Input
Amino acid sequence: QLMAFHYCEIMVINITICWNGAYLLVTFLSPNTNILSQSAGNLYKYIFILKDSSETTRDDTYYLFKKYYKIFYNNNLNNDWLNWFIGFSEGKGAILHFNNSCRFIINHTNYNILYLIQNYLGFGNVKIYKKNNNIIYGKYIVSNPKDCLLLYLLFNGNLKLTSRITQLYNWYNILKKLLNIDFNSINKEISLNDAWLSGFTDAVGSFSIKKYKYKNITYLKCIFIFNHKDEFILNKISQLLYTKNLGKLKNINDYRIEILCNNNEKYKIILNYYDKYNLKTSKLNAYNIFKVILTKVIGKQPLSIETIREIKILRKSMNKWLLLNRNIGYKSKS
Output
């Protein structure tokens, strides 16, 4: 049997979906689509249209996402920002599912970045959690079916961490019951030519200044650090940034790479990248201080006592910004 809903306030997109042996011709963006909510059970309140799913093979891997985002929100999003967001999401977010529904969550102590994400994407909610009237952390939540679908289109084929691809596959198993969609299980390569690493750094990267003595003379090490439980992804980052200092952290299921920036070649690679693809959390302030410290250290050691004192003050300020991005939540949920 063929049915059609003709009323539409804005535009009409028609496709045919086979569901329970009947063909249902749906007029997308029609208020009448809520009539399908009971048939979908607790899964979704809407039917979403994905025609020409083969379009995901285009050179722009965000093409399908941007196409339907434009339909939903009549806006265009920047690829650099999307790359940053995916990197940040892979480091801090969680692609979850509950009772046949999708949910995306980011917990962060620097809650301002969550509002930035909400405002830029135009969807999702931010909840603030307090203790004794002090804000402890914020939570960005996406649970609306329409918006979860958009995130699926954004993430599919663009994720780099195997754990996130596995989480997204759970979404696929939910969405494929209603939609003709595909799933890309290939880990996308990390590159210094996009903003993914900047987002991942905002999530799990850090900076450190360490003192050590050699022949009773004080020297400083300027170190760029990544901590994460995905050994494979850290090895990939270490290859990009020319370091082999990958180690297992004691007592927790994380790995670490430490990039010693005292080497001219290494620090230039790092600065060239992050000056082009800016951090977006308060780690940007820490990074800018880190750069100032580098100018005082690189090629100038051993340092004077006065310079070491100046750097000590700068390090304290840098650490203050880093503390605003301390970890929150449970690793089992991320």
Notes: The chain is about 40% helix and 25% strand. Residues 17 and 41 are 17 Å apart (CA to CA). The radius of gyration is 23 Å. Residues 305-323 form the longest helix (19 residues).
